Amino acid sequence: MAAPSDNLKINGDRLWDMLMEMAKIGPGIAGGNNRQTLTDEDGEGRILFHKWCIEAGLTMGIDQMGNMFMRREGTDPDALPVYVGSHLDTQPTGGKYDGVLGVLAGLEIVRTLNDLDMKTKHPIVVTNWTNEEGTRFAPAMLASGVFAGMHTQDWAYERTDAEGKTFGTELKRIGWRGEEEVGARKMHAFFELHIEQGPILEIEGKDIGVVTHGQGLSWTQITITGKESHTGSTPMPMRKNAGLGMAKVLQLVDEVAWSHKPDAVGAAGHIDVYPNSRNVIPGKVVFTVDLRSPQLAVIEDMEARLKDGAQKICDDMGLEIAFEKVGGFDPVTFDETCVTAVRNAAERLGYSHRDLISGAGHDACWINRVAPTAMVMCPCVDGLSHNEAEEISPEWAKAGADVLFHAVVETAEIVE
Ligand code: HGY
Ligand code: MN
Ligand code: MN
């Protein structure tokens, strides 16, 4: 396939303006965003994205998980499309770029092709995957997981948030449930641009991460049950302190992750304490342990040591413990041809680059199971993400989008 010429570039100012415009929807309290999936704010963000896509001449398809597919025709209507996108939903204290950069860079590619009146053989479809974050409805990458056949749609529809609302009812409530069968679409390839959400590219002064692999993820929800009692009048030997049990388990999680340094990681970001009253010993705690590594064997070792160790901690303390696997996927190796297209694009465009393993999970990790897939990453300041202070530079955004542009149009085959 003919490679695009190195003067083929996106309009960085227009991309940055779109990012800043989208950031006004679902503002956080410290400069970032709180546009959690299937909230009214998510619905507003979808409306804006849809408006921009229609203005760019795209037609929308939407499936029963609310995934948005915005199509630019190719010269060969029978050719499988090249998909490019990410997610518009954010963490509760999310940044302005996590996911959003990948969706809007896909739209910027279309706008640039329109400006240049360029045609491609394969159609191009800009995609917004529903509920990538998994913060309101676990697990993460829920809709792309259904698309890839990893979850049933019924199971996904029953996921509930902290208020007991289900995914299915909320998707209908915001009016973004389509009729298309999820996963019926076939892809020629899928590309996703994402901020690194880690420190490597910035520390090494690299513009582009050529993502060859994604590390695997395991989410185990743990419920520890003790006995509520008075924090003042209950003698220490009589206590059944579920909160203390959790503290010991979290210490174990940290030790297990460190034992597999430098790559493995472990922590708990979701913690609910009951009754969460200042003068009541916690009778129950529910928390989710997040374990990750590029090696499946390491993940399995950490899961086993967590389960055995936590069970012993609770047995010794007279506490009950229950485990539920609520999310996870094996380490991912992205498609060699697509990865090479990304690497060659960075080289051709003169952007510094290095191969990278993604520390975070992405929709691409699931889509890689049903289509040739690769990712492009750009640096972020201090490697910070899932924090309202998440920041990138316009130059980093443009470099990432330029490389994405070349990889997509090379794969979609430019028609002279
Ligand atoms: O959890 C993740 O890695 C992603 O940000 N959802
Ligand atoms: Mn993301
Ligand atoms: Mn995220």
What does this structure look like?
- This protein is α+β, with helices and mostly antiparallel strands and 416 residues long.
- Helices cover 35% and strands 23% of the residues.
- The chain has 12 helices and 17 strands.
- The chain has helices at residues 12-22, 40-55, 100-116, 142-147, 153-157, 167-173, 200-204, 242-258, 296-317, 336-349, 363-367, 394-412, and strands at 59-62, 68-72, 82-86, 119-120, 124-128, 189-195, 208-214, 216-225, 229-230, 265-274, 280-281, 284-293, 320-329, 332-333, 353-358, 373-378, 414-415.
- Strands 1, 2, 3, 5, 6, 7, 14, 15 and 16 form a 9-stranded mixed beta sheet that branches. A 4-stranded antiparallel beta sheet has the order 10-12-8-13, with helices on one face.
- Strand 1 and strand 2 (68-72) form a beta hairpin.
- Helix 3 (100-116) packs across helix 12.
- The protein is elongated.
- (2S)-amino(hydroxy)ethanoic acid binds at residues 132-134, 140, 360-361.
In a nutshell, what does this entry contain?
The chain is α+β, with helices and mostly antiparallel strands and 416 residues long. The chain has helices spanning 12-22, 40-55, 100-116, 142-147, 153-157, 167-173, 200-204, 242-258, 296-317, 336-349, 363-367, 394-412; strands spanning 59-62, 68-72, 82-86, 119-120, 124-128, 189-195, 208-214, 216-225, 229-230, 265-274, 280-281, 284-293, 320-329, 332-333, 353-358, 373-378, 414-415.
